[in-house]
Amino acid sequence: MNLTPSPGGAGGLIVLTADGRRRLETQLAAARSQLAELEGQLGAAENKDEDLAQRFRLQERIARLREALKGSVAVAAVAEDPDIVELGDEVEVAYDDGDRGRIVLVHPVEADADHGHISVDAPLAQALLGSRIGDDVVVTAPMGSYRVRVLDRRRSH
């Protein structure tokens, strides 16, 4: 299958890593469980308005997660250009201060900084997209600009 992802969160194809899909499925299951528990408490709730608002938030979250999972494809299903950094790539970078890091460039629905999954909408990802191993790129972020060097890239699965 030759699919072309559109970076960013504005519509288009949702490309998920295997880890990202698992995390979204886990979040969906947890939200469904919370909703079921809340539904059981609604009749006798002292904080009925608050519980109704929570139910609405959970229903919305479930709908968003279901839609994201339903409208997604695996990174492996997307044509890869091994010469440049793309959505779905794990990238090793070196910062100006000598620190190194590994990040995965992902669709915004999968972004999770705690797991190193950075949204393609983020300034660092925007600077890295289209770069090549050995490139120095300038990241223009709200707190100021900085440079990183692309040390390695590989397709995340």
Describe this structure in words.
By secondary structure, this protein is of the alpha/beta class. It folds into two domains: 62 residues, Helix Hairpins; 76 residues, Chitinase A, domain 3 (Roll), CATH 3.10.50.30. It contains three helices and seven strands; from the N terminus they run E-H-H-E-E-E-E-H-E-E. The strands form two sheets. Strands 5-4-3-7-6 form a five-stranded mixed beta sheet. It has a two-stranded parallel ribbon with strand order 1-2. A hairpin with a 4-residue loop joins strand 3 and strand 4. The longest helix is centred in the first third of the chain and has 24 residues. It is elongated, with a radius of gyration of 19 Å.
Oligomer: single chain
Gyration radius (Cα, Å) is 19 Å
β-strand amount: 25-35%
The CATH architecture of the largest domain comes to Roll
Kindly report the average pLDDT value: 88
Helix/strand-derived category reads alpha/beta
The largest sheet has its strands arranged as: 5-4-3-7-6
Question: What does this entry show, briefly?
Answer:
By secondary structure, the chain is an alpha/beta fold. It has helices spanning 18-41, 48-70, 123-128, and strands at residues 14-16, 72-74, 89-95, 100-106, 117-119, 136-141, 144-155.
